[in-house]
Write a structure and sequence with these properties.
The first copy, chain A, contains three helices and eight strands; from the N terminus they run ββαββααββββ. With 139 residues, the first copy, chain A, is an alpha+beta fold.
Chain lengths: 139, 139, 139
């Protein structure tokens, strides 16, 4: 069984956002999969998907602070500057964190840890909605 | 053909550990797959899975040294501090390195380079055993 | 439907390289897949695969500059130095960026954003050709 859907994540401010529910609510047919995998792919090079802690919001704000510190705006070695000071750091963060996640499905649900959730890393200051290709397969 | 198993990796000290054998020894049915994929997913947000060099142990200790240097404990911008100084860096490392790896299977074996192995990144000082969901599919 | 092929990427200088066409041109049977996934795996621990912006070459050179700055050669904590000053940083970059990418296939083509492409991160100074295992599945 294969199912592929294009999902839209609503526009969000720069930072890390817990989007597990926003994604799962758009994937009702996951219920039909006993064993399988969900692949989520973001069709943008200035935002990212990753798994991390789903409970304390300061984990997300600390991650944003850390990535801003170690992938700085205005580094003297940047040449790609004409799309704004946030653009080149956004590209670097996108590759550090990754453009897709693959998650096991068991008995119709994501088989993740109780403290895990799906994060959208929004790395631009003024981005619009983000497009995700969700591919589910299993039996 | 789909097979999904929950594996346990024994508790390990903080650092990077070569776990190829510990994982493969728990996946005997891989022998039956001519062409396929193995997906390994760690159900924790303070440990990670990655592929790297399988020979010289100093690659693992140098990686630990590097990540400790560039994802420091006690950064002035951390707010998530109540779970210990090692916790917030562990979350950041988990997202930098990733919570899953996908590896091709060919003729019943992992089709990785002769110098490649699977690393567990254990980012907490005193973690317990770690749970992995191994999902194999193929024909 | 499963198909697995070993691809060769020609030897390239150190840096980030857009390799979408070099890969897709070796995967003609992708045309037969209506819905599926392409998994690309690099059989080396000193090079990486990632998705990023496919248009402006300075994005690639800025990424190289950034990774050289934050994963430096000659760090005082490196012990794995006998394979050259570029080797240990290459291993760290390989794990930061990742050894594989998984990309949705829709109607016989990669379903990526119009500004996205596949990058090879070549992290050694004088590497040879790089081997990729391409695994396609779908229906």
């Amino acid at each position: 069984m294969w199912q592929q859907t294009q999902l839209t994540l609503s526009a969000k401010p720069r930072g890390f956002h817990l989007v597990t529910d926003e994604i799962v609510n758009q994937l009702e047919s996951m219920n039909n999969i006993r064993v399988g995998l969900l692949h989520l792919f973001i069709k943008h090079s200035s935002a990212s998907l990753t798994l991390n802690e789903n409970a304390d919001p300061t984990v997300r704000s600390d991650m944003e602070a850390h990535f801003n510190h170690f992938v700085p705006e205005g580094a003297p070695y940047y040449q790609h500057t004409y799309e704004g000071a946030d653009d080149m750091p956004a590209h670097i963060k996108a590759s550090l964190l990754g453009s897709s996640v693959t998650i096991p499905i068991t008995n119709g649900q994501l088989n993740i840890g109780i403290w895990q959730g799906i994060y959208l890393g929004e790395h631009r200051n003024h981005a619009g909605a983000r497009q995700i290709i969700a591919t589910m397969q299993g039996e």
